[in-house]
Design a protein that fits this description.
This protein is α+β, with helices and mostly antiparallel strands. Helix content is 40%, strand content 19%. It is built from 19 helices and 17 strands. Helix 8 crosses helix 9 and helix 11 packs antiparallel against helix 13. The longest helix is centred in the last third of the chain and has 25 residues. The two termini are 58 Å apart.
Length: 621
């Protein structure tokens, strides 16, 4: 709230109804009362256990994607009541557990389609006045994307969506050791470490009120992140001085989270980052003289004092007290996001209100499909067909291996004197071999037996299953780039490829929404923490054009005058764009310098710099 408003501003301001007072942005101070860490841990454990089915199914999908497709436990036919891996049962019968890994091909193909349609975010102004601001924020956002290698994260999100049906990103502002500068950071969150309230019915996940993740830090990392003084270091180290007390699973790897309270690596310290919403009565002040807002607790007395001061100076100036814009004060029960860092023993390491101006937690989550709070990965839909294909392959291999293939049938009377069976066989297979024998009265001669394996429909069933798995997954021959049959029109081939992608439209739209919400939250973090001018590499691969980020200009960003969009960034699109620029240059609509500034030719910026240097030299001369 601004004090000491001058008389001219009081007189010029129009009266406004107090009921139209908008809400203010949440403050970033520490909460007035500390949360109960043990209650937070209990709630986090409840939600983490509720996601156990998702983690189990995700682990199974990862095994199948990696080629470990015979490790499911089934009942042992030789020992009823006990369970054994399928590969052991197959090996007992003298068979080899073969497999055809279609799932790996499925995941790679979808990832390739994602990479073939690359986009980059663009901040578009709804009005012409915001064009300069939109271009600057576009450069800042794209520069932050390059620093975070966002394409690699996008691929990881595709894999996670296929394997677990959920993808989660975390957006924060931190110092980068590699770049030596603080910047917006986008991190992928392992679903094994994630927990959130599972009583969600809204597919947009707007009902999240409790979310967090499990961290495993080394002691030095923990101290560097949370200690500001030697006393705080001693306090934090004392929380872990007794070590872990729960039993450890020595077979766990660094990807597996087998225990909620104990890390698999005994040299690390487990810490829970818990974001939760807490409600309380808050005073919202809205100054109708200048539109400023303030939020806090017990501010009503301050507002009354300010209003009385304004009425007094207005009366002295001869202004009608009814026309004086006052400070409106409202009490509202509002929620704030609070982050608590809790140890497994229930100690509170740190706690504060969300430091971000967007007033939310730093996570962005997408699930597919979300029905009554449940979701699953798309890989789960084709695992049964993958298993059946593997069984057919093992069956066919066993049938082929058990059939007769060129067996030599030799009557004993046809073996010449002085020849053993081994000698006869060696001479029979020898090149240009000659065997002299005396035929008997029955004229029995050696002959070979060739028997085709019994079909029993196995080959037809294998072909049917391969067609079904392609239809269900949407990975048809056309979308894989297979050679079309003779006489197939190109338009039909393209239509088949397009129709195959319809099965993946929901996946791509879900990921597109995830990336859009990620960029919106990242843009707000950038505007909040970029407090000094900095150089930005705005155009990436095309031209390397640099621009300057101006915090004063960015402070004018409003939700209603800017919108995030995606622009295509593929080689074909860049070639078309360069052709359009060339036609504009030939028509005299743009200058050669403007052409070099906008085109994607690799030498454009070097040539532009030389032209400008020559112009400067001519001007100096």
């Amino acid at each position: 709230m601004i004090r000491g408003i001058d008389i001219d501003r009081l007189a010029a301001s129009a009266p406004v109804s107090a009921e139209s007072c908008p809400k203010a942005v949440c403050d970033t101070s520490s909460p007035e009362r500390s949360s109960d860490p043990e209650a937070l841990l209990e709630e986090a454990l409840k939600y983490w256990l509720a996601l156990d089915n998702m983690r189990s199914e995700r682990d199974r999908n990862i095994r199948y994607r990696s080629g470990d497709q015979w490790s499911d436990y089934v009942e042992d036919p030789e020992k009823p009541g006990s369970f054994v891996k399928e590969e052991r049962i197959i090996s007992r019968g003298g068979k080899i557990p073969l497999k055809h890994n279609f799932i790996q091909q499925y995941v790679r193909n979808i990832g390739g389609q994602m990479l073939s349609e690359r986009h980059q975010p663009v901040v578009v102004a709804r009005t012409g006045e915001g064009n300069a601001l939109g271009e600057m924020l576009t450069g800042a956002l794209q520069s932050c994307h390059r620093a975070n290698r966002i394409d690699t994260l996008n691929m990881a999100m595709v894999d996670e969506m296929l394997l677990s049906g959920m993808a989660c990103l975390k957006i924060r502002y931190s110092y980068s050791d590699n770049r030596g500068i603080s910047d917006g950071r986008v991190e992928s969150v392992n679903p094994e470490r994630l927990f959130f309230n599972t009583d969600i019915e809204d597919p947009r996940l707007d009902e999240i009120r409790f979310i967090g993740q499990i961290h495993d830090y080394t002691p030095d990392q923990l101290v560097a992140s949370f200690a500001d003084t030697p006393e705080e270091e001693d306090r934090i180290r004392s929380y872990y001085s007794a070590g872990t007390t729960a039993p450890l699973d020595t077979a766990a790897t660094h990807e597996e989270i087998t225990s909620f309270f104990c890390p698999s690596d005994t040299g690390k310290c487990r810490l829970f980052e818990i974001w939760h919403r807490e409600g309380g009565w808050t005073d919202y002040l809205h100054d109708y003289a200048d539109g400023s807002e303030e939020t806090g607790r017990s501010l009503s007395h301050e507002a009354d004092a300010e209003n009385e001061h304004r009425r007094k100076i207005a009366a002295e100036a001869g202004i009608d007290p009814e026309k004086v814009p006052l400070v409106a004060c409202h009490k509202r029960y509002e929620h704030k996001w609070i982050v608590s860092f809790v140890t497994p023993d229930g100690h509170l390491v740190a706690e504060r209100v969300t430091p971000y101006v967007h007033g939310e937690h730093p996570y962005v989550i997408a699930t597919m499909p979300m029905t009554d709070g449940r979701f699953r990965g798309m890989v789960s839909d084709i695992i049964d067909m993958q298993r059946y294909i593997n069984r057919l392959i093992v069956m066919l291999d066993f049938i082929i291996g058990s059939s007769a293939k060129g067996v030599l049938m030799v009557p004993e009377t046809a073996i010449p004197d002085g020849y053993s069976v081994a000698d006869f066989a060696a001479e029979y297979v020898k090149a240009n071999g000659v065997i002299v024998y005396r035929p008997n009265a029955n004229k029995e001669v050696p002959y070979q037996v060739h028997k085709n394996s019994t079909a029993i429909g196995a080959w037809e069933m294998l072909s049917t299953q391969m067609q079904l798995i392609e239809q269900v997954s949407g990975i048809s021959g056309a979308i894989q780039g297979r050679t079309a049959a003779a006489g197939t029109p190109s338009s039909l081939y393209m239509q088949q490829a397009g129709n195959s992608q319809l099965n993946l439209t929901t996946l791509f739209e879900t990921l597109s929404d995830l990336f859009r919400r990620r960029d919106e939250k990242l843009l707000r973090v950038i505007v909040q923490y970029y407090r000094e001018p900095r150089y930005l590499i705005t155009s990436g691969e095309q031209s390397g054009q640099a621009s300057i980020y101006d915090p004063a200009l960015a402070s004018r960003m409003l939700d209603f005058n800017l919108v995030l969009a995606n622009s295509t960034n593929t080689p074909v699109y860049r070639q078309i764009f360069d052709d359009i620029l060339m036609r504009m240059l030939d028509g005299g609509h743009i200058t050669f310098e403007q052409y070099l500034e906008s085109c994607s030719l690799p030498f454009a910026q070097r040539l532009l710099a030389r032209i400008r240097q020559n112009d400067e030299n001519h001007q100096e001369a």
